[in-house]
Amino acid sequence: MTIDTTTEREPILRARRLVKTFGRVVGLDGASLELYPGEVLAVIGDNGAGKSTLIKCLTGAEVPDEGEIWLEGKPVSFKRPQDARDAGIETVYQNLAVSPALDVASNLFLGRELRKKGVLGSVFRVVDQKGMRQRARDELRALGISTLQDVTVPVENLSGGQRQAVAVARAAAFGSRVVVLDEPTAALGVRESNQVLELIRQLRERGIPVILISHNMPHVFDVADRIHVQRLGKRAATITPETHSMTDAVAIMTGAATE
Amino acid sequence: MSHTTASPSPSANRTPEGEPPTSALDLAEEFLDRTTPLSRIRSILHRYPAISPAIVLVLAIVVFGLLNERFLNPANLSLITQQVAVVGTLAIAQTLIILTAGIDLSVGAVMVLSSMVTAQATVHLGIPAVVGLLLGLLVGLGAGALNGVLVTRLKLPPFIVTLGTLNIFIALTLLYSSGATVRGGEMPDLLTWTGSVIPLGGVNITVGVLMMLVLYVVLALILQKTAWGRHVYAVGDDPEAARLAGIRVNRVLMSVYLAAGAILAIGAWIQIGRTNAASPNAGADLNLDSITAVVIGGTSLFGGRGTVWGTLLGALIVGVFRNGLSLAGLDVLWQTFAVGVLIVVAVSVDQWIRKVRK
């Protein structure tokens, strides 16, 4: 079945035998997944294979009926997306949860604004604009996104790739333990996609493990360390770009091959 | 074999120590430079939506000043500010709600109900004026809570909710007051205090006008400087994105309707001072007038974009047009006509500005 049971490293995120049904529709039928520190794990699968449900269970958007999830060796149960966020699992959603009219810095800190010190911050909840802008610049520079040094630009004035960069930077900026990217290149052109793949590599270099959900085989094989193939609500196999070709991956996805 | 080592794969953009790494994203910069002068103007207006109403206001003052020398008279300017005080206050509440992509048709009705409760409780029941004002505040908060609950819990469109509560509040006002006006002379001085005049360098400013201006300053600071202010914009901009970012959208919406209710109660106090009476028939058009001020002030009806300063300019523009046209000797209907044109132009400009979004 899986090929990484021999590894001695502790997974940072582990899901075991997750089951999720929607009425009579079975979304997950005992799906397992392991994410190891410092790796990019791609999740692929045909439509209806349950990859989206799997990710939703890992990020708190759905609650699995059965099964267990461990984060850093401790069992966790997420009731809401905020629970997963609080635990350090940051998700970049396909529809980009950015607020177009707010500027880059405000978007990076949306929902967790830095406050001014003292009474102004604690009682009147006045935000520390200067501090947020400075930290936003630092985070973007650390991710190698130097075109976004003007963090006062409204997000709606940015290109698609830059918006994606803002969303990724936000996910990576808050000491997150795991970053989940849901189809980050689906709406982007070739060059912008490459920029996002570059960002994913930057995340890995910073030691942040990434789960990448994608339909795009070349992108997956370009950036992933391991590839989780989801089929019929279960994990069909976990492969690597070195040991398997794209054709192999498609064969496993469609059930033409088992590994 | 699994690749679980933390050793980074060789990356194309390793740079020497200390220098910020450059990435392929730099290439995207040219997207921002592909602009024409017109689109640059549009970007500026997009970023500072209060610019266009400011230009309109200055032009209007200059033109009306040239048409009739009495227009720039301190007494006349002071009159304009007094005429603007009530609608200007209601428009602050309206701005908050429109920023969340809502609309409030009940602002005028809530204000009138609040003013009637304050005046009648004080005059007929003989309770202290301060308590009467607090009762009025409670009415405002209660009305805001009702609108807020219907919008957030029943998920009804704000337009329909407030169309319904508009009628409810009008009926309640008439039932409660039996249609009778309470005259200022009967009321304690505190209630009509908002109409008293403070001479300020030749121009007579009323307490009500000052209160309105203070409210603008306070709300502008709150919207710009606090986390709550940002959340209001984010919720109006894209509620789903706000929710995914961890903002409790319903809580923000509820607080906006409550804040609006409190502001309307202050508006009720200003109204009593301004007209030296509390009349159940006052303020029938104030809901539309407040929306007019907000729209002319450059706040987008689609939510998430605009400022209270723009709304103040919008309210002043309407006041200046009405006053200026009347001084120019035009029929009152032409004032209404002009305001209509202003609205259509303002919304068209907003649509054009919004096209900045790709």
What are the key terms here?
heterodimer; A: 259 residues; alpha/beta; Rossmann fold; 9 helices; 10 strands; globular; B: 358 residues; mainly alpha; ABC transporter involved in vitamin B12 uptake, BtuC; two-stranded antiparallel ribbon
Secondary structure layout plus pairing:
The complex is a heterodimer of chains A (259) and B (358).
Chain A: E1 13-22, E2 25-35, E3 40-45, H1 51-58, E4 66-71, E5 74-76, H2 81-86, E6 89-92, H3 104-108, H4 119-122, H5 129-142, H6 160-172, E7 178-182, H7 190-205, E8 210-213, H8 217-223, E9 226-231, E10 234-239, H9 246-254
Parallel strand pairs in A: 3-8, 3-9, 6-7, 7-8
Antiparallel strand pairs in A: 1-2, 1-4, 4-5, 9-10
Helix pairs in contact in A: 6-7
Chain B: H1 29-33, H2 37-47, H3 51-67, H4 74-99, H5 107-124, H6 129-152, H7 158-177, E1 182-183, H8 189-192, E2 197-200, E3 203-206, H9 207-225, H10 227-237, H11 239-244, H12 249-275, E4 277-278, H13 286-296, H14 308-327, H15 332-354
Antiparallel strand pairs in B: 1-4, 2-3
Helix pairs in contact in B: 3-14, 4-9, 4-12, 4-13, 4-14, 5-6, 5-7, 5-12, 6-7, 6-12, 9-10, 9-12, 10-12, 13-14, 14-15
Q: Your description of this structure?
A:
The complex is a heterodimer of chains A (259) and B (358). Chain A has helices spanning 51-58, 81-86, 104-108, 119-122, 129-142, 160-172, 190-205, 217-223, 246-254, and strands at 13-22, 25-35, 40-45, 66-71, 74-76, 89-92, 178-182, 210-213, 226-231, 234-239. Chain A is an alpha/beta fold and 259 residues long. In chain B, the strands form two sheets. Chain B has a two-stranded antiparallel ribbon. With 358 residues, chain B is mainly α. Chain A: Residues 13-257 form the ABC transporter domain. Chain A: GO terms for molecular function: ATP binding; ATP hydrolysis activity. Chain A: It comes from Agromyces agglutinans.
